[in-house]
Amino acid sequence: MKLSSFRYLVRQGFDNVWKNRVMAFASFCVLLVSLLLVGISILFYININSIIGGIEDQNEAVIYMMDNATPERVAEVGDTLRLMDNVSEVIFVSRDQALTDLQNNTKEPELFQSLSDDNPLPDSYRIKVKDISKMEQTISSAEKIPDVLYARSPDTFVKLLLEIRRIVTIVAIAIIIALLIVSTVIISNTTRASVFSRRREISIMQSVGATKSFIRFPFFIEGMINGFLAGAFAMLLTWFSYKSLVELLSKFDGLSSIGFGNVIPYSRIALPVALSYVIAGSLIGAFGSVLSTRVHLKYRAANM
Amino acid sequence: MVELKNVSVTYESTGVEALSDVSLKVEDGEFAFVIGRSGAGKSTLIKLLLKEIDANKGEVYVNGYDLIKMRKRKIPEFRRTIGVVFQDYRLIDTMTVYENIAFVLRVIDAPKKQIRKRVPYVMSLVGLQDKADCYPSELSGGEQQRCALARALVNDPALLIADEPTGNVDPELAYELVELLQGINACGTTILMVTHAHEMVRHFGGRIINISEGEVVFDEVIGGAEIEAE
Fold first, then answer.
1. Looking at the predicted complex, does its ipTM rise above 0.85?
2. Best residue in B90, B106, B113, B154 to probe A by mutation, most A CBs within 10 Å?
């Protein structure tokens, strides 16, 4: 194909969007709604995951040292813990610090006053793990370190969190797949209707000797323009609604204590969201359009 | 050149035999009228010559192409050697007169220079030079037909097939159109004109191919009214 023909077909694609604006608008709307449904579902899932992740991060396990462990051994155990794969943070809590904390956290600190001279509490390490699902293995490994008395983790809560994450993941993936299927069917029907409404134009092109690629190319461009616009519009709508929602949530102080403080700020996901919308929109629009034209040309060839 | 050898066409969906053992030959530079009643097989003949349908039996040759053995990917190339004027004009509504005509040249990757030269030439040939920027909906029936004719001619085809080109225009214009086709024929283009207008055919005379119930029942050259008058 010559460059002049390429330019002509690209221009035809742009012109056709305006000339067939009713069907183009219908395709645009369908694509916009589909992109929004899938996009918002994915963002919702990512945020739920982030919130759960935030709650998980607050969970700590405590490794208690034996009473007779020397300060050198205690320090060595700390280093060993730091070297463990799944451990992200290690904080040493001396027996004196533990007693002070105990006194500070109780309503009757005088009860523990007598313990100051003979502190029964051991030295300990508070550790945070990278992957909460491996908490049990990490605890088990920590207990095998010499001079470690025992380790404690919030088992029940960890299991609950893991279960919530599992359910959220399954439900979110199911919803996203269902929306993708529904969107694909709707988009395919709309583009087929758009191509069908121009079957006369296509048949004229064929009768004067236009090749299939010559016929399909302007449809490809048209679909891509529609998809790009739908993607850009979906991005703007998402940006506006997401920011409004985050601002609304930030007004409720109580929500941050249950993890809503971990809602991802839009600035952090703006670029991937924009690119995903625009690229997905353009590709779905372009290939949906070409596929429908292809099906139409095949059907026409078979029924001539 | 058009040649059909013992061609039969049966539509699978209805079982109707539209053409039955048809043989005919139209030499280069000839002008032939194809006449016949509705359902006689004229449209089937045109579809066959445009490779829109295939024959169940026989051989079909058009402009040097063997249509029976032709591969699908060769069809566009073959169709570029033919100009077609349809009864319903088949102009693209979203394109202007100029764009409709130029489209044929764009399809064959013609240089811009050739498009700029050739399109105004054929537009003046059919008297549409002032309607370049009009859309088909802004033209009269006769103008649309002339636009369709210009589109068929712009590629300088070896064969021009006109399917009922006078069907939607008034008699005076119909005669003008045939005279225009005769002028084009005089320049060497083979013309096959399908028509219902027996009166007009008798007026112009020439080679007449009459199809009835899928068979060629008459294929002869007759003298026209002008010749008889002489």
1. no
2. B106
